[in-house]
Amino acid sequence: MTLTVHHLGVSQSDRVVWLCEELGINYELKKYDRSPIFAPPEYKALHPLGSAPVIEDGSLKIAESGACVEYILQTHGNGKFGVIPGHKDYAEYLYWFHFANGTLQPALLLNLSLSRTGLGEGHDMIKRYDARRKQILEFMDQRLSKVLWLAGEQFTAADIMNVCCLTTMRCFIQYNLGAYPNILTYLKRIAARDGYRRAMEKGDPNLDVDKLIGAAPPPFYKPAGGALQARGRI
Prior knowledge:
Blueprint: E1 3-8, H1 14-23, E2 27-32, H2 41-44, E3 54-57, E4 60-63, H3 65-76, H4 90-115, H5 124-144, H6 157-166, H7 181-191, H8 194-203, H9 209-212, H10 222-230
Parallel strand pairs: 1-2
Antiparallel strand pairs: 1-3, 3-4
Helix pairs in contact: 1-3, 1-6, 1-8, 4-5, 4-6, 5-7
């Protein structure tokens, strides 16, 4: 059976493509463009909730990026990029793996939603959740001042889960990383990985990795910008 990865462009499904490239496994990549902001109908038809990413392995179909990553690790990973119970970094691995979808990504999506409400930068709600994002990033930066990788000494799936929020998501949520030198150094290490470069070339060839990992946010995703402008949202 060949694993099939359904990848929605410029999205968190780049986590799954990246994991497959790091593992060097045989998989089929099916790519879908946004239309123009959200997933196209053919992608939404893959899952009742229209979720991205989606993977198929034989008759099995799974959505949710964390579930997809864990499934691939357990069934195709041969012990790579996970941390087993009893290892000194096990608790940190679990924490940072789930930090991505439990803390970091929800905060960024809330920032994105609030930015489209028309509330000014001085509004209490905007200031509160902007401060929350900065608190989270400072926390990550402090962690990365002590370790090379989020779980500790070794690159793991915890890194794969979090990097999307610091790179690809900034095509929609335009925040600056200049105040977080350890995150920027970490992203340079990520960009030096052949697996990451291959994944981005295959999954999102129109994105410039060097701009994704820079302090300034990468260019805003143009199709979304045009659609939002037409709706009077930017």
